[in-house]
Amino acid sequence: MAEIPHVTLNNGVRMAQLGFGVFQIPENRTEEAVAHAFSAGYRSVDTAAAYRNERAVGAAVANSTLSREEIFITTKLWNGDQGYDNALRAFDASMERLALDYLDLYLIHWPVPAKNLYSETWRAFSSLYAAGRTRAIGVSNFEIEHLQRLFDEHGVVPAVNQVELHPYLSQTELRHFHEEHGIATEAWSPIAQGAVLSDPTITSIAGRLGRTPAQIVLRWHIQIGTIAIPKSVRPSRIVENIDIFDFELSEQDLSAIAGLDRAHRTGPHPDIFGS
Ligand code: NDP
Question: Can you give the CATH number for the domain in which 102 is found?
Fold first, then answer.
């Protein structure tokens, strides 16, 4: 099994560049899917309170032969739980469902600018981090102006910003901003829920290299430095999606994929979602 490369977050914590996403996996199928992912070599799992499968993720961790230290668990605070006290309560509820002593990464799921609570929520996240309840804190779906506000009001830089990112939405400006400020970029819907897999540029690279389109796109993520968290419930795809560490895309292939950017979203826009 080839080793998964890691990124070092801005507080020194190491996070695998490829993880397993469990959005839209029903609770009664999640433990099995995560167990398949662990046996295929994944060590990092991305869930959220809103996915309603944290208990099953916790069960997969508890029933695995891996040690807790080998596993990296991310969960997220749902929009209705923003605010200082609410966030602390929601964290405890997630930890109870996950049945973990500590979390690896806690994210604010969406900024919901209309509620104007994300900055106060970040203060709660900073205290959870200071108390050692989670090894790292970050955000999801934050735009530059939302990140800037966290820096200005708290001086605590998120370790990670998890955003929609794939060849049709390559987020170049946001990625540069992250680099400048020491924030790791994590890509959700890394294969655009399948929408990029029949793109002729991708299929032609795949054909030339004898790889699948999903492997080409996930390898692109690794080479541009993002953390990718593909989801699948199918064991064969779970294996396919991690089998990307024994080949490389050329500079020419990388720039051909960069040329596919077209501001295409599979999900909602962060400025308005949750309003
Ligand atoms: P993905 O880009 O990971 O695509 C998942 C879809 O592609 C599923 O329908 C899956 O089907 C299919 N698929 C997976 N592998 C392959 C393959 N090798 N070939 C062909 N089809 C494949 O989309 P997601 O939206 O699930 O995003 C991944 C993760 O990102 C989520 O699970 C979640 O953890 C996170 N996320 C975070 C969000 C946020 O707001 N922070 C929002 C959305 C997602 P099948 O299961 O049948 O194989």
Answer: 3.20.20.100
